């Protein structure tokens, strides 16, 4: 059975994702692009589960942008589609 991380990566590789306006704005604020967020998701080896409640489960994936900067991407899965909620350059 695939892990949630591998399922997220598989969906992103297949192009089955959307990016929120907030995520796009945050990427632009850090001089990053959607390609950076996708790369960070695909090279993430660690993640944490974040929840407000069980109907809005989110995950933070820890990866790297194309230029090597640490990038955290928060995603959720809704109706089989990965939604990139936000992304930001990590302090670590």
- Integer count of domains: 1
Mean pLDDT metric: 93
Number of strands: 5
- What would you call the shape? globular
Q: Largest sheet at a glance? A: 5 strands, mixed
How far is it from the N-terminal to the C-terminal residue, by CA? 31 Å
Uncertain residue segments: none
The Cα radius of gyration reads 12 Å
Q: What would CATH call the architecture?
A: 2-Layer Sandwich
Proportion of residues in extended strands:
35-45%
Walkthrough of the structure:
There is one protein chain. With 92 residues, the chain is α+β, with helices and mostly antiparallel strands. The protein has three helices and five strands, in the order H-E-H-H-E-E-E-E. A five-stranded mixed β-sheet has the order 1-5-4-3-2. Strand 3 and strand 4 form a beta hairpin. The mean pLDDT is 93.
Short description:
The protein is α+β, with helices and mostly antiparallel strands. It is 32% helix and 38% strand.
